[in-house]
Amino acid sequence: MIKHLRNVTLLLALALSFGACNKDRLQVDPVNQVLSSTYYQTELHVSEALIGAYDPVGWTMAYGQWISPVMFGEIRSDNANAGGDPSNNDQPGWQEFDDFTETNTNTVLHPLYRRSYIGINRVNSLLSNTDTSDPALSSDAVQVYLAEAKFLRAFYHFEVFRHFGPIPVITEELAPNEVNLQRNTLSEVMQQIIDDCEDAAAVLPVMPASGQEGRATKGAALALMGKAYLYWADLSGDDATKFDAAASALQEVVDLGAYELVDDLGSLYTQGTRNTTEAVFEIQHNPLYTSDWGWFEGIDGNGMIQLCGIRGLCADHPTYEAGWGFMAVTEGLYNHFLDDDHYRRDVAIASEATLEQDMIDAGLSCDPIIDATQNNPIDYTGYFQVKYQNFKAFAGTNINGGNEHLTKAQNTHYIRYADVLLMLAEALHRGSGDDGSAMAHIDAVRERAAGPGDNAGAFRTASQLMADEGMSLLDVIWYERRAEFACEGDRWTDLVRSGRAESSLFVGDGDKEGNFDDESLWLPIALEETVIANSMTTYPDASLFD
């Protein structure tokens, strides 16, 4: 029992004044501290704890480091370079990731890893301490809260797995001395993720209640399950049965009838667009100005929008404000788009030429439109991502002295319906081989890629693309995933899971060339963790994938 000095002093004085000592009077209940043993007593308690478990999902900074999941998935790939300041000393952790020179002392590793396990710990505390046999906790609402918690545990395990490989699976509240963790196998990690998703999907609603947009739903749990099965199938040697399991889960998402592709792909990335019919799971960011430069840990908005905004941009540009220039798009990504896929390319990428044309169209002038000296000379290509861009028009409200640069409201697209359709197409093709259905799902995404409006017949179908370009159906799927989700964070993990991450991707690519090896597939677990958990390996051993 915690003793508060001030109360103890008072009680001692009273005891002495009465000439007696009563030890019971020296034991006082905590008055300013919440303990797990005395919490989780009401439905409100469980709801509050769940909100706390959601909180790390939206972190774009932790422990003084930027940790955007989008940046991790793009900067290590052939889609983007680190970018930033002309000096390689700007955010050196990200520069090392870009160059494949990171070690276990990289400053970004620990925040990324800890963010997920903080979330897992909060979930486990909620699940371990909520006694549903208590009449006060037996409501349907509590059951939904617990299902959301299981989805979150799956989400956090999956996120840390995607970057570090097979990692410790934790499903119980740990005591302070239970620190000597070790990696689980691929099968153990994936089975836990899938079990949690399955349990969650059985209870979660199809759509969130009004005012609760961004909460986990049945579709989100099924989609994450399908994504986990895809990774498991690939990393365990093209296991057709797991591709079939992925297809089954993803088909359930389609059959819910709750989602549809928005008409205009570009509208997904405009300022103020949130939680559309295409959002299966969207990471929420606060539209209020709540953070300032003196409190980076309190960033509630999407900090990567400032971090990855266009560096050196003319202040007169009619649409965008300048940012810090990280996640610099490669020429290879720009050239990936076929000649008739320019609309989808322009939704994702802007060039110096297009930015200059924006100025001309607006009747403005600024020379030069881009001050190239402000950009990292190794990484600068003249191309910039614009899906997560620093728009001039910001719809938030300035409170508490917050700064708009740190509190951008644009949500992060984690799983959208186009992803469900393309994952389903891949699972059908690589599993039992239902290529007709696979191509139908691809065609739905490709029709929308032609631009707003009814484009049926105006854009080449998957079969036409195969005939015209000499592609296999799997080639078309890889083409579509890179084009559709350019600058959204899936590129590197798609390459790793499918065995396409190899040194040849980076020939001629600045500092990357020559640094890639087998260890580059996964990030090393930070020294701070392996020192404490001395059974933990820095990199996953090959035996973990058996």
Key traits:
546 residues, mainly alpha, two-stranded antiparallel ribbon, two-stranded antiparallel sheet, 19 helices, globular, disordered N terminus
What's the rounded overall pLDDT mean? 90
Total of DSSP H or I helical runs spanning 4+ residues? 19
Structural class: mainly alpha
Measured between the Cα atoms of the first and last residue, the distance is: 48 Å
**Can you tell me the overall shape?**
globular
**How are the strands ordered across the major sheet?**
1-2
Helical fraction equals 40-55%
Instruction: Round the Cα radius of gyration to an integer and report it.
Output: 25 Å
- Give the percentage of residues in beta strands: 5-15%
SSE ordering: HHEEHEHHHHHHEEHEHHEHEEEHHHHHH
For the sheet with most strands, the description reads: 2 strands, antiparallel
